[in-house]
Amino acid sequence: MKRLLALSLLLVMAACSSEPEQATSYQAPQSQDLNDDDLDGVINARDLCLETPPNAVVGNNGCETMLSQELENELLVFFKHDSASIEQDFINELEIYAAFLSQNPSLEVLIQAYASEPGSQAYNQDLSERRANRVQQSLVKLGVDKNRIEIQAVGEAQSINASSTQQQTLSRYARVATQHSEQQAKLKWSVFREQRGALL
């Protein structure tokens, strides 16, 4: 009886030892943020610019590649023959331009005034100077600092190219312009962007 009991005990122990051991699962604690919130291809843990624009070309640090673009804002003020008076329509345009300048206080303004060919060269030089001064005075009256404005009286030396019937009218004008650089993100190429550009 004792032998039978001992044999049964040995069989039970052998059966237990033959069962495969259960593998213990272990998860290492995540020490870095592997998400990519702005979807630029760089994980948050390495991303120094977490809000890059969509489709921007980025470097290894997740910051977009910037391109410098020269922008010019131009307004043409036309005058009647032998006149330096500004018509009401162009006064309204100058008001809009002055508002733009007040929102961009770092911009400098260049006024170039012209005259048509009839009359002597000296007279037209004086006329273009009066036109430039009149535009400057209008901008100053609208709140633009005079020190931001440069004027050039060109006279009839540089007029707009046009047909003979239009040349005299189009030569009586003052050009008001600002120029500045703007940084923009370089975008990835896509066929959809090319198609959109072709439609514009």
From TrEMBL:
SUPFAM superfamilies from the UniProt entry: OmpA-like (SSF103088)
PROSITE patterns, alphabetized: OMPA_2, PROKAR_LIPOPROTEIN
GO cellular component, one term: cell outer membrane
Principal place of residence: membrane
Compartments in which it is found: Cell outer membrane
Keywords: Cell outer membrane, Membrane, Signal
Cleavable signal peptide: 1-23
InterPro entries recorded: Bact_OuterMem_StrucFunc, OMP_bac, OmpA-like, OmpA-like_sf
Pfam families documented for this protein: OmpA
Residue stretches making up the OmpA-like domain: 66-200
PANTHER family cross-referenced by the UniProt entry: LIPOPROTEIN YIAD-RELATED, STATOR ELEMENT OF FLAGELLAR MOTOR COMPLEX
Protein name according to UniProt: OmpA family protein
